[in-house]
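Section 4.2 – Deliverable D4.2 (structural model, holo form)

The reporting period included a commitment to supply a predicted holo structure for the target in complex with 6-aminohexyl-uridine-C1,5'-diphosphate. Inputs used:
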Amino acid sequence: MEKGGRIRSANCTARQRLAIIIPFRNRHPHLNILLRNLIPFLRKQMADATIFIIEQAPPTTFNRGALLNIGFLEALKTADFDCFLLHDVDLVPLNDRNFYRCGDNPRHYAAAINKNRFRLRYEHYVGGVVGFSKEQYIKVNGHSNLYFGWGGEDDDLAWRILNKTYKIDRYDNMTSRYLMIKHERDKGNSKNTERRNIMKSSSRRQDVEGLNSVKYKVNSVELCHLYTWINVSLNMTE
Ligand code: UDH
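Output (structure tokens):
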């Protein structure tokens, strides 16, 4: 692998350059397991992929949506990526044919998770692992930044996708299987009890709140062997 966590085949030029964006705080054992599986998986798919870990500094409550927006913006400062895989740290793909590439619509990859008995949780579920081309993510204006704590940001994203007349693409149930590494709810990420209220204004604020309004400060960027590690603080004026 190249410094900063780029994987690519020596004898094949991939059509798309992928950024794998992992929102992160205090889940080191999960990250080790994921990388041990994800790197060989990407190699088999002959991907040209760079892994970015976007770590949220304390003390603010975890905000997965904002971290994914930041990952998208920071990755683009390093290279002109075509396709963005927004990837939870605790989801290990089980089928090598779950092809990490972008197409005409955003794609929800993690449709069949062991925790949900390998069934889609509900029709518009887009949690866990979802992929966008650069144009698609800009058009939906990324995730909302308003969801601090667990829940809501993924359902808000589903509406953003559908509002912009995209479909949610998925592979079949055998292909889109994942193992979720068992865990309890994290400290600093309690259930967001306001999530349903915030969702009510989802469509109204889509174009002005999201990727184009996220506020953050980059504390450090480290180009490591397996990934680029970016530590950020939220809600800071730049
Ligand atoms: N994440 C972190 N650190 C945190 C919180 C979240 O890294 O403190 C990231 C990580 O990539 C994780 C993702 O955000 O995979 C999603 O958060 P999550 O794993 O908490 O979401 P999930 O829906 O959690 O998987 C279900 C709650 C499980 C509670 C089980 C109680 N028995």
